[in-house]
Every structure is written in C-alpha cells, then in structure tokens.
Amino acid sequence: MLTRRDFITHAVAAAATAAYSGLGASAPNQIAQETGARLRTFLDGTLVDQARVTEWERRRISVAAARLSTNYTGLLRGELDSLIGRYKIAVDDIAIARAALTQARTMIGLDGIRDLVAAEISTSELGTRAALAASGGQWAISTAEIVSDRGCASGFVDWFTRAKDTDDRTAWTDACPDHYIITTCPDGRQEVVEVTGGAILASRFFVDYSETDSVAVPIDPAYPLTIAGTAVLASGELIGSVCHQFRDEPEGGFRAQLKVAFPAAVPSLYISEHQWHLACEFSNWITAYLR
Questions:
Q1: How far is residue 238 from each of residues 208, 234, 242, 267, measured CA to CA in Å?
Q2: SS3 breakdown of the chain: % helix, strand, coil, rounded to 5?
Q3: How much is the CA Rg of the chain, to the nearest whole Å?
Q4: Cα separations (Å) of 193 from 120, 125, 126, 139?
Q5: Where is 270: in which H helix or E strand?
Q6: Residue 97 gets which letter from DSSP?
Q7: From the centroid of its chain, how far is CA 99?
Q8: Strand-pair category, 139-148 with 179-184
Q9: 7, 97, 256, 258: which could form a disulfide with 61 (CB 3.0–4.6 Å)?
Q10: Cα angle for residues 209, 213, 218 (degrees, 5° grid)
Q11: How far apart are CA 46 and CA 68, in angstroms?
C-alpha cells in the first residue's frame, strides 16, 4: 500500500533530482549580476575565491537532494565527495538547484522533514551530549569574514532581524543547502534543523537571540553591531552560541565577522567545515539583502 510518506518521497524525488541536473544559468558571478556587489570571503584570515564558496554550496546541494529523496546511498557518496572534493562539480545550475530544493522542502512540509530526519536527530543528540561532557565547559570557535562593497552594516542587521521576526522561511532555508528547517517559534526562538559543517547527521536545536549572557564568543569592540544568541537542544541543554558582528567599511560597504561556538571536543573538521557553511549562508543572505 502506498503510504503518505512514500507518496511524498516519490513526489519530491523528481524535484530533488533537478539539483543534480547541470542545467541553468551560469552562477560564479551570480552575486555581481544580481546586486552589482562584490563579496570577499576570508577564512582563517585568508581571502578565498568566491567561486570556491559557490562550489561548496553546489556539492552540498547534491547531499541535500539525496537526503530529501531518501537516496541514502547517494547521501553517503555525496558526503564523501563534498568533504574531500574528489570530483569536479559544475556550479552552473545553482539557481535551478536552489529552486528544486525549495520545492522539495515545501512539498514535504515541516512535520514531514522532522519525521524524515528524526532518527538522525536522535543519534546526533547523543554525539552532542558526549561532546559536551568531554569539553569541560570549553568551546571551539568557527569563524568566517565577509566584506561587501555595497550596503551598510545597519541595513543588513535590520534585514536579518526582520526576516527572523516575520518568519521568512524561504530566506532562511534557501541560504544554505544544509538548512532543512529554520522557523521562528511563537516564543521568538528559531527552531533549526540543519547539518552543521563537517557533520553527516542532521541536528535540531533552538537559537535564542534574546539570551546573550551565556554566549561563549567574546564581543569584538571594533564591530559596533552584534547579533548574538545561544543554541540549546529541545531538552534545554546549552550546546553552543552564535556571535555575528558588523561594521561599515571606510571605503564603503560593510564587513561581517561571523562566529559560532561548538563544544571544544567536537572534531576539528567540524570547525573548519562550518567556516564554509557560514560563508555560504551569509553570502546568500547578504545577496538577498542587497537585492
């Protein structure tokens, strides 16, 4: 008998498969084409070609497509390809791939996605609790910086806050293929279901931007605008925090310093890969703001 979940799986498979298709308009210069802006991304203080950020996103799209279509063999293969970059992945189908993932997420729905990744979340929570216990209250920080030659710090912070307050789910989830659910709860917290950088399993947590006392990332006084908050499991354990800071640049535009705190015992791969996650999502959020 065809179950509701089977029907949804088959229905979204075609949409998710479009993420592999290699069709669509050229993407490496998409930001400049859409906004007239140039973004520069720095990881560990080193400038990286923006095309590499786009390539990272494209590799993660293939992973997300496999997960949403429950192609678990493809999911594991995609994870390996994404982490070690074994194959050259074309980046000329980003717009179509994003649209396909949006369609798939919409068809599955929030409850469907929660059901789809429930087993992953249960397993990842066990790993998170083990990492917390082994970390002894210490934290490791994943950091990325992005400089835009257009816009201003206050404008972006206002856009970001408005998107959260209005629960603009498309803006949140479309920014990174590893975002499965980002939605604002009635209490103002954000429910997040995502695969953090370097992880293979999805995790679920809640970000509270009104709770800053427990944020593990020191405030940098060189950046006057801050978006910070804590991340907790559904059961309430503190598992990390975010501290994103912004300032206008003297020559125009603005700089974003983006930091996420993880339990110190997580593998170093998580910290380095999450830099790319940050670079991807904030590049796309800044682009959305500048449109």
A1: 11, 10, 12, 18
A2: 45, 20, 30
A3: 18
A4: 11, 12, 16, 21
A5: helix 268-290
A6: H
A7: 16
A8: unpaired
A9: 97
A10: 90
A11: 34
Distance (Å, whole) CA 209 – CA 94:
30
The widest CA-to-CA distance across the chain, in whole angstroms, is 64
Length of the chain: 291
Lookup: tokens for 257: 């310093």
Distance of CA 61 to the CA centre of its chain: 11
Nearest to 222 by CA among 183, 255, 179: 255
The secondary element (H helix, E strand) that includes residue 204 is: strand 203-208
Q: How far apart are the first and last CA of the chain?
A: 47
CA angle 15, 18, 24 (to 5 degrees): 130
CATH of 4-290, one of 3.30.530.20, 3.40.630.30, 3.30.420.40, 3.40.50.720: 3.30.530.20
Q: Position 199: which residue type?
A: A
Judge whether 274 and 261 are in contact, CB under 8 Å.
no
Would you write out the chain's pLDDT as a tens digit for each of its 291 residues?
Answer: 334 444 344 444 444 444 444 433 344 455 555 667 799 999 999 999 999 999 999 889 888 888 887 766 666 566 655 654 544 445 566 888 888 888 888 888 999 999 999 999 999 999 999 999 999 999 999 999 999 999 999 999 999 999 999 999 999 999 999 999 999 999 999 999 999 988 999 999 999 999 999 999 999 999 999 999 999 999 999 999 999 999 999 999 999 999 999 999 999 999 999 999 999 999 999 999 998
Instruction: Tell whether the torsion through CA atoms of 204, 208, 213 and 219 is positive or negative.
Output: positive
Distance separating alpha carbons of residues 251 and 272, to the nearest angstrom: 30
Show me where the domains of the chain are located: 4-290
Two structure tokens written together for 38: 């140039």
Grouping H, G, I as helix, E, B as strand and the rest as coil, residue 220 is coil
Beta bridge partners of 227: 244
For tokens 């979340």, the residue is 121
